[in-house]
Amino acid sequence: MILDLFAGPGGWSHALSLLGVHDIGLEWEAWACKTRSRAGQLTLRTDVAAYPTWPWVGRTRGLIASPPCQAWSTAGKRLGLLDQPLVHQAVADLAAGRDTRDRLLASCRDERSLLAAEPMRYLHALRAAGGPEWVAMEEVPDVLPLWRQYAQILRTWGFSVWSGLLNAADYGVPQTRRRAILIASRVRTARPPEPTHAQIAQPETLFGPGRVQWMSMAQALGWGATDRPVPTVCAGGGPGGGPEPFPSGSRRTLTDARDRGTWIAPVSTASSPGKQWSLRSNGQANATVRRINEPAGTLFFGHRANECVWVNENPASAESASGQGSVRESVRITAQEAGVLQSFPADYPWQGTKGAQFSQIGNAVPPRLAGHILRPHLGRDDFELAA
């Protein structure tokens, strides 16, 4: 089996399905479990920290883990950073067969922090039967020192290990999402996947196959193409399913913007006056803003699930043309679009309220990045992941 801890809505699982295999996901959040179910993924709804390890001993080929990142993320309170010594202690104790979680948890400032030590509990148990064959783990960049501790322990257990930071955009994800990754194997040299994309396209040479340019939001969403339908950006519904207030007090879509003459032009002419849309990651002054012909910045969604908005930077609209002045367009992203920018298919069956859907998307592993990490362990080095 391939065991997926903190499986979420299925980023790793969808990548595995593209590679022709499936995993068993352990996940607690109800809506994420329902999304996985609708996507046809096998799931046990359970608390990873409470579930016993013995059912998996001697039966697990690969272990995947993406512990919750809210306590560590720069988007949150980052209390997990203050808990780092306790988490490191928990990992060291679990690696030695000592379960001190209850005592350490009582001292944690964020109760979720210690979840990052849970993979070691499973690894120690699986080791008794000679498994797993390989390990893949993912988290926000601040967790890299913890992954390095895991790496030191796994090397003493006979694993080849690599840990470091990867940018999802380098693997065809239309988003410059940086993540701390750990890759370990008992049967092959662990190394990061070879990037397939670059900020500036690189031609093939005698020293390498070359790279294509980073995938832009426009390419991923099919905007500016004549043979693709125009997506609806605002379908209404806030985090709890209620109405979404817009600056104008009305609901708008990018289809409306197109009809008013401010819709984005094809990518080749996307810089035309009045036709340049950008994605703003949140409402803060220092929010990342990326143009439609670039990859998105890192998408994260907290309790303000719909702060991520499309904005028209230079709206030379019909109103301004008629002398009524410039009107700034602003419409909010949909869960479907956010999922596509995370490299999920457009028809992925997200479940729950809008807030629940955005939360799942923001916490998910981009499937294209996951696929590139996993395919060497599955003997699929030559397998081309679908765009």
Question: What does the secondary structure layout of this molecule look like, with pairings?
Answer:
Blueprint: E1 2-5, H1 11-18, E2 24-27, H2 30-38, E3 42-45, E4 62-65, H3 79-82, H4 84-95, H5 101-105, H6 118-127, E5 134-139, H7 144-156, E6 160-167, E7 178-185, E8 197-198, E9 212-213, H8 217-221, H9 254-259, E10 277-280, E11 289-291, E12 309-312, H10 318-321, E13 330-332, H11 335-341, H12 354-363, H13 367-374
Parallel strand pairs: 1-2, 1-4, 2-3, 4-5, 8-9
Antiparallel strand pairs: 5-7, 6-7, 10-11, 10-12, 12-13
Helix pairs in contact: 1-13, 4-7
Word description of this protein:
This protein is of the alpha/beta class and 387 residues long. It has a domain at 2-210 and 364-378: Vaccinia Virus protein VP39 (Rossmann fold). Helix content is 26%, strand content 14%. It is built from 13 helices and 13 strands. It has helices at residues 11-18, 30-38, 79-82, 84-95, 101-105, 118-127, 144-156, 217-221, 254-259, 318-321, 335-341, 354-363, 367-374, and strands spanning 2-5, 24-27, 42-45, 62-65, 134-139, 160-167, 178-185, 197-198, 212-213, 277-280, 289-291, 309-312, 330-332. The strands form three sheets. It has a seven-stranded mixed β-sheet with strand order 3-2-1-4-5-7-6, sandwiched between helices. It has a four-stranded antiparallel β-sheet with strand order 11-10-12-13, with no helix packed on it. The chain has a two-stranded parallel ribbon with strand order 8-9. Helix 1 (11-18) packs across helix 13 and helix 4 (84-95) runs parallel beside helix 7 (144-156). The longest helix has 13 residues, at 144-156. It is globular and about 60 Å long. Residues 225-274 and 317-322 have low confidence and may be disordered.
